[in-house]
C-alpha cells in the first residue's frame, strides 16, 4: 500500500495499524515513495534494509528526490582523488529510468537492488543500459570510450599501474573486438551479455559494485 496523508487522516485510531517511524515519515516528503511492503516485494531488500536506506536517502535529500548536481556531489565523496563528475552523470542517467532529471527513492532502491543482489543477467542488462548512452539499444565504440574514460578519470591517481593517455582507448578496442561478434560496429545486448559471461570476472560489474565497508 502507498502511504499517503489521506490514508492516515481518514483512519480512526482504532483502525490505524502499527507503522514504523520511517513509514510515517514517508508521508511528509514532497515526493512520496512506494510503501515499504510494495518496495520489499519489488526489490531484493528486506523491510528493515529499506528503512535504513530510506533514512540515508532522506538525510541527503529531504525533498524525496535527487537532482543530478546533488547526486554528483554525493558520489564525488567516494572518489576524492579523482574526478567522478562525468561517470556520475552517466550513472545518474541510468538510475533516472523516467528521464525526468531526478531520482526518487524507488528509482534508487530498484537500481541498487539489481546491482547488489540481482542475477548476473540482471546486472549485465543494467550495465548495458549504462553504456548505451543514447538509448538506441546498441553500444558503439564512442559510447564505450566515453564510459571507460570517465571511469579512469574517477579513479584518478589510484589507477594501478599508472596509465598513459592511450591506455583507455586500447582497453576499449580490446573489449569492443571481443564483444562485437558479427563485426557490424555496434554491440547488442545479447553480444554484451555473452561476452561478459565468457569473462567470469567481468570488469564492468566490478567497477559498478557499491563499496561495502
From TrEMBL:
Keywords attached to this entry: Calcium, Lipoprotein, Metal-binding, Myristate, Repeat
Domain EF-hand: 83-118, 119-154, 167-202
SUPFAM superfamilies xrefs: EF-hand
UniProt GO BP: regulation of potassium ion transmembrane transport
GO cellular component: voltage-gated potassium channel complex
Taxonomy, superkingdom: Eukaryota
InterPro entries per UniProt: EF-hand-dom_pair, EF_Hand_1_Ca_BS, EF_hand_dom, Recoverin
Molecular-function annotations in GO: calcium ion binding; potassium channel regulator activity; transmembrane transporter binding
Function as written in the Swiss-Prot or TrEMBL entry: May be involved in the calcium-dependent regulation of rhodopsin phosphorylation. Binds three calcium ions.
Similarity comment: family membership: Belongs to the recoverin family.
UniProt name for this protein: Kv channel interacting protein 1 b
Species of origin: Oryzias sinensis (Chinese medaka)
Amino acid at each position: 500500500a502507498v502511504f499517503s496523508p489521506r490514508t492516515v487522516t481518514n483512519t480512526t485510531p482504532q483502525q490505524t495499524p502499527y507503522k514504523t517511524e520511517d513509514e510515517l515519515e514517508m508521508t511528509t516528503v514532497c515526493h512520496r515513495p512506494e510503501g515499504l511492503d510494495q518496495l520489499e516485494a519489488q526489490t531484493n531488500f528486506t523491510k528493515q534494509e529499506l528503512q535504513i536506506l530510506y533514512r540515508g536517502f532522506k538525510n541527503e535529500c529531504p525533498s524525496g528526490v535527487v537532482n543530478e548536481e546533488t547526486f554528483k556531489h554525493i558520489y564525488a565523496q567516494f572518489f576524492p582523488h579523482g574526478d567522478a563528475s562525468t561517470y556520475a552523470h552517466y550513472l545518474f542517467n541510468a538510475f533516472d529510468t523516467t528521464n525526468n532529471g531526478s531520482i526518487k527513492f524507488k528509482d534508487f532502491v530498484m537500481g541498487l537492488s539489481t546491482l547488489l543482489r540481482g542475477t548476473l543477467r540482471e546486472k549485465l542488462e543494467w550495465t548495458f543500459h549504462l553504456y548505451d548512452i543514447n538509448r538506441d539499444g546498441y553500444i558503439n565504440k564512442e559510447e564505450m570510450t566515453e564510459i571507460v574514460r570517465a571511469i579512469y578519470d574517477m579513479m584518478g591517481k589510484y589507477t594501478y599501474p599508472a596509465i598513459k593517455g592511450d591506455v583507455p582507448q586500447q582497453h576499449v578496442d580490446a573489449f569492443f573486438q571481443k564483444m562485437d561478434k558479427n563485426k557490424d560496429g555496434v554491440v547488442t545486448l545479447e553480444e554484451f551479455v555473452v561476452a561478459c559471461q565468457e569473462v567470469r570476472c567481468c570488469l564492468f560489474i566490478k567497477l559498478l559494485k557499491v563499496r561495502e565497508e
